[in-house]
Write a structure and sequence with these properties.
The complex is a heterodimer of chains A (272) and B (294). Chain A is an alpha+beta fold and 272 residues long. Helices cover 25% and strands 33% of the residues of chain A. Chain A starts with 15 loop residues before the first strand and ends in an 11-residue tail after the last helix. Chain B is of the alpha+beta class and 294 residues long. Chain B is built from 5 helices and 18 strands. The chains are: A alpha+beta (272), B alpha+beta (294).
Chain lengths: 272, 294
């Protein structure tokens, strides 16, 4: 029997609302509302020096801020622990080399590269944070516009970086391989996708898997106090891959739809 | 097959005030001046500053002769004698249980106010105190009635009737206490096949109608048999209807829940929570309720 408290099946997501380009002074931003969970992601592209072990690649830096508006438990420093845990999970999910084309973020090997600072803000906690965060990060990366730069060589050999004058002359990132996280919570003998707060309170163990649009798994993590049977882990992985693929298809469809509306789109933002 | 719907956000339309029944309500926000007339006594939710009466909460102004008070729209539950509440046990203390009822202070259920199993009437002994945990543990849900209110606002409950007691399998929905209409009875058996308890504190309990009414025994034995799928569908649909009514700020009482249930039948249960379906159902419910009134 496939019936949850709110009438959904075990593999159904709540209705999600996605909007990009909500914060004007970022390179890319997105807001995702999944039921009562509200996430805002802003991406800033800044110039920095590449890491020593990867001299011809740029990199991503994640930071998760749990706003005190989300729950009273996040007042003061209460949300820091959760924030660092979520940020570490994001680092792990994006640690795979094929997720984002980091070589395109390089300007000058060993000297200059683009660093993408991804800032996640939790506005409201309604269960299933990581799924919503990963959807928002993918939408924000799709929306990111990095200005095109040219490197000019001086006679003495010193390099100058010139920013193009046209504000619309920018490079977009390819988000086809960006993974999305699917959290599967085990409740009783079954597992469910997109758990609400009450369902999360009832589940003792969950499996977090990150899936790309082609169905490839990039990382897996088990959370919770309870234990998982190896067989149920296999089942959950299969479910996760299936659900992940449909999630990507739905998300890409909505992002393309939004893109096609162009500049005449009415931005709803926060006061809509 | 997973059903994942994503959509672009749509700006919310301002819902116009429903056709006024009996005059406009004077709505205020904190800081709004209610009146500059000094002849009024100030009640709850107001304060005086510079000879002006100012509201301290967001709500509707109520005037009784010379007393002006503001009844807040979203508050914690304020207990009144005779209210039915649904609460969760948080602590088991020496001769009482502490119950969480969405009010400012935890409510109290004294051992002497509790019905013993089988409906016996006797003096509570030391053994009863030690066996308190057998009756109600932390985390249990109970339905009870307010016996009295202490001076600090804490509420004292009693379950001195066979219809109150521990609640078994069902679904709890938490809403604002101001949305539950005061009625003669709060225990309803809906014709669609489920029963509902509308707690005055905003806790709504939806459960499958028990077949044998006389097997209550004070309600301590929980029936843990699996609930059939048809009953669970009815309960899920009712739960979604209650959530829809609450989102659209409609008062909750048995007729409104029933009309909303009937209006939602053409839709699938999980679609009821979509914004446009919610608006449509609640509009239809509102229309039927207005037709009923006049």
């Amino acid at each position: 029997e496939d019936l949850r408290v709110d009438g959904r099946g075990c593999e159904d997501y709540r209705c999600a609302e996605v909007e990009t380009d909500v914060v004007s002074n970022t390179s890319g931003s997105a807001r995702v509302k999944l039921g009562h969970t509200d996430i805002l992601v802003g991406i800033k592209a800044e110039m920095g020096t590449p890491k020593l072990e990867k001299p011809d690649e740029g990199y991503l830096e994640f930071f998760v801020d749990c706003s005190a508006n989300a729950t009273p438990e996040f007042e003061g420093r209460g949300g820091e622990e959760l924030g660092t845990e979520l940020a570490n999970t994001l680092y792990r999910v994006f640690s795979s080399e094929s997720s984002v084309d980091l070589k395109s973020l390089c300007i000058n090997p060993r000297e200059h590269c683009w660093v993408l600072y991804v800032d996640v803000l939790l506005l409201e906690c309604g269960g299933n944070l990581l799924d919503a965060i990963s959807i928002a990060v993918k939408a924000a990366l799709f929306n990111t516009r990095i200005p095109k730069v040219r490197v000019l060589e001086d006679e003495e050999g010193s390099k100058e970086i010139e920013l193009s004058d046209d504000p619309y002359d920018c490079i977009r990132l390819n988000v086809d391989d960006v993974p999305c996280i699917v959290t599967l919570s085990k409740i009783g003998y079954r597992h469910v996708v997109d758990a609400t707060l009450q369902e999360e309170a009832c589940s003792l163990a969950s499996l977090l898997i990150s899936v790309t649009s082609k169905g490839a798994l990039t990382s897996m993590k088990k959370v919770g106090r309870g234990s998982l049977d190896p067989e149920s882990i296999f089942e959950m992985m299969e479910t996760g891959k299936r659900v992940g693929k449909s999630l990507h298809i739905a998300l890409q469809k909505i992002l393309d739809e939004e893109e096609s509306l162009g500049t005449s789109r009415q931005k709803v933002g926060f006061l809509g | 097959m997973a059903a994942i719907t994503m959509r672009l956000p749509v700006a919310r339309k301002a819902v116009g005030p429903s056709t006024a029944r009996g005059g406009e309500k004077h709505l205020v926000a904190p800081g709004d001046t209610i009146t500059t007339d000094t002849g009024y006594m100030r009640g709850h939710g107001t304060y005086v500053e510079e000879e002006k009466l100012i509201a301290s909460v967001a709500g509707a102004v109520e005037r009784v002769n010379k007393l002006v008070c503001v009844k807040a729209l979203k508050t914690r539950y304020n207990g009144e004698v005779g209210d039915i509440v649904v609460g969760r046990i948080t602590e088991v203390q020496q001769k009482r249980w502490k119950v969480e009822t969405n009010s400012r202070l935890d409510s109290v259920l004294l051992l002497s106010s509790m019905n013993l199993p089988g409906g016996e009437l006797r003096r509570r002994s030391a053994e009863d105190e030690l066996a308190m945990r057998d009756y109600l543990q932390e985390g249990d849900l109970i339905s009870a009635e307010v016996q009295s209110v202490f001076s600090d606002g804490a509420v004292s409950l009693h379950t001195r009737s066979l219809k109150y007691g521990k609640l078994g399998q069902g679904v709890l929905v938490q809403v604002s206490p101001s949305l539950v209409k005061r009625q003669k009875t709060h225990f309803h058996d809906l014709p669609c096949g489920a029963s509902v308890i509308l707690g005055n504190n905003g806790f709504i309990w939806i459960y499958p109608t028990p077949e044998h009414k006389d097997e209550e025994a004070g309600g301590f034995t929980t029936n843990l048999e699996p609930v059939p799928l048809s009953d669970r569908e009815v309960i899920s649909r009712l739960r979604n209807c209650v959530v829809a009514l609450v989102t659209q700020q409609l008062m909750l009482f048995d007729t409104s829940i029933l009309y909303c249930y009937e209006a939602s039948l053409p839709h699938q249960i999980k679609d009821i929570l979509k914004p446009e379906v919610m608006e449509e159902i609640v509009l239809e419910t509102r229309q039927r309720l207005l037709d009923l009134e006049g």
